[in-house]
Amino acid sequence: MSRSRLKCCGLLVSVAIVLAVGCRRGREADGNHGVQLSTTLTMESYTRDRLAELNGPFKQFYFPTLEIYNSDGVLSYKSHNSYHNVQALQELVTGTWVAIPQEGAARLARVVADIPDFRATGSAVSSRHSATVLSVSLAGCGGCEMQDVVLDELRSRLAARSVAILTVHVLERPAN
Fold first, then answer.
1. Per residue in 89-117, pLDDT tens?
2. Is residue 107, in this structure, part of any structural domain at all?
3. What is the residue-wise DSSP string for 127-155?
4. What was the pLDDT predicted at 18?
5. Is 1 inside any structural domain?
6. What is the spatial distance between Cα 122 and Cα 113, in angstroms, rounded to a whole number?
């Protein structure tokens, strides 16, 4: 078989694996490392799944969004300001983060259950009794890119602190 045919076969096998597995990837906790799950959703799917938790007459979504849940699964931080989000992530890594529970907010268990690709492992994530970061970004959003880059840079340090990391990448239109 020629080299170009081998490359083509390898590419086809890779594409088949990606299609079979989908955009979701995960790594379970092992010892001192946090759970890491990631998914890609269309805007329609993301807004439908998260609409129930919005209060008031105006239903708006902002990107990027960063949510930090404390060890009891209570929301302690939520913002769409990428600069504040980067600072919060850095404080979480250094251990200077001060969690202020927002008791009236949706619990981590419900939020995880609302995201289809996280449902299967959601109960394990929400019952871990350690902090959880939920990062939501929109494709093509500059502030989202900054948050994603910093989260990727801090990922191993967060995992070493047993922080679970859930990432959702939202597409404005379905992929063709």
1. 999 999 898 889 998 888 898 888 888 88
2. yes
3. TS-S-EEEEEEETT-HHHHHHHHHHHHHH
4. 28
5. no
6. 6
Q: What whole-number distance in Å separates Cα of residue 36 and Cα of residue 26? A: 5
Give residue 54's pLDDT: 59
DSSP 82-101: HHHHHHHHHHHHHT------
Q: Is residue 13 part of a domain?
A: no
Quote the CA–CA distance of 50 and 112 in Å, as a whole number: 10
Which residues, at least 6 apart from 137, have a Cβ–Cβ distance to it below 8 Å?
63, 64, 144, 145, 147, 148, 167, 168, 169, 170
Q: What is the mean pLDDT of the chain?
A: 78
Distance of CA 174 to the CA centre of its chain: 19
pLDDT tens by residue, 135-151: 999 999 988 999 999 99
* Count of domains forming the chain: 1
Instruction: Examine residue 10 and state whether it is found in any structural domain, yes or no.
Output: no
